[in-house]
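To the wet lab folks,

You asked to see what we're planning to order before we commit. Fair enough. Below is the target structure as tokens, and below that is the sequence we designed to fit it. If anything looks off to you, flag it before the synthesis order goes out.
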């Protein structure tokens, strides 16, 4: 719908943009920078024009606080539209990620206070709502085929991985989820599976596209040959309920495992997990660290689960609110 709104730009405005383009090129002598700036300015004009056509829109509900383009959010704010967003995971991808949001529904009051440093608008508010995914998480909790999948293994561990980009250029632009991160994790899982033959490892991602990527083809072939490793296309709900514990790259599913009080070990590359929230026992910085922390979970399973309850209570408020009821309160004011 957004892309198909008829857009027309006045000749006067187009001339202004072209003048800016020529000035930028004159001073930089760089065609790439000049084109980039012109594209940004042109997109802003298109977005502002779209919002003007949607004159009755007063609020914009954002499904993912980080993925929606900033130029769309800026254009909405210029047109007086308030932005409402959900917290999709307990931590932002990067600690310095700016939040252009008026109302931010957070999992807890504590996470809301931590997110305030990322707010870019003076009147921005955080509103704790608890785990708004709780009904979804508890749906189909009784998985009948857990015994069949687990078979003769003592533990079942879901390995959470980032989805991969099929396009080489798109992959190069990914700061967090890229071939390098996929490769590091898959290499480590291969060694872990040989070190812990009594654990069944389920490798789970939003897609299995990396199995088709040339850079990762060899490691995928090796992984398929290991008996206690399985690539799975299960839903994230099914994978959570099947698992005894989790390991891998940080995703929103890791938060939901914490909510289910299932032990996790997060493979961290940036040293950006807040010590006030996350226990050091659940953060890994290299393979040896991962090995030792998984071993600790296996030898102290009940103790780890008990300790992780404190983390769950920090991430999720005990009282869950209906998010649409909270939105209605904002709109009805």
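Sequence we intend to order:
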């Amino acid at each position: 719908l957004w892309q198909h709104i008829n857009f027309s730009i006045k000749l006067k405005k187009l001339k202004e943009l072209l003048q800016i383009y020529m000035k930028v090129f004159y001073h930089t002598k760089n065609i790439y920078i000049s084109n980039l700036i012109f594209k940004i300015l042109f997109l802003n004009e298109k977005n502002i024009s779209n919002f003007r056509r949607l004159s009755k829109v007063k609020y914009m509900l954002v499904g993912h606080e980080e993925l929606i383009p900033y130029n769309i959010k800026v254009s909405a704010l210029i047109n007086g539209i308030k932005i409402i967003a959900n917290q999709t995971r307990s931590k932002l991808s990067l600690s310095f990620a700016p939040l252009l949001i008026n109302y931010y529904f957070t999992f807890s009051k504590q996470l809301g206070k931590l997110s305030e440093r990322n707010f870019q608008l003076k009147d921005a508010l955080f509103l704790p709502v608890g785990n708004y995914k709780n009904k979804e998480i508890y749906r189909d909790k009784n998985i009948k085929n857990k015994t069949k999948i687990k078979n003769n293994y003592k533990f079942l561990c879901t390995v959470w991985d980032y989805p991969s980009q099929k396009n080489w250029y798109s992959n190069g632009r990914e700061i967090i989820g890229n071939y390098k991160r996929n490769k590091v994790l898959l290499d480590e899982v291969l060694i872990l599976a040989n070190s812990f033959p009594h654990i069944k490892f389920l490798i789970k991602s939003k897609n299995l596209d990396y199995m088709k990527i040339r850079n990762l083809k060899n490691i995928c072939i090796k992984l398929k040959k290991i008996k206690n490793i399985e690539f799975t296309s299960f839903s994230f709900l099914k994978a959570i309920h099947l698992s005894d514990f989790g390991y891998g790259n940080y995703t929103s599913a890791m938060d939901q495992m914490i909510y289910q009080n299932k032990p996790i070990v997060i493979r961290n590359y940036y040293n950006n997990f807040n010590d006030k929230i996350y226990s050091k026992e659940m953060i890994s910085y290299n393979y040896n660290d991962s090995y030792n922390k998984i071993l600790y979970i296996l030898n102290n399973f009940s103790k780890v689960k008990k300790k992780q309850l404190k983390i769950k209570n920090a991430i999720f408020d005990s009282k869950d609110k209906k998010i649409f009821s909270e939105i209605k309160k904002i709109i009805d004011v």
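Structural context that might help your review: The CA atoms of residues 84 and 103 lie 5 Å apart. The beta strands are 59-62, 82-86, 103-106, 125-128, 155-160, 199-204, 229-232, 245-249, 264-267, 283-284.

Thanks,
Computational group
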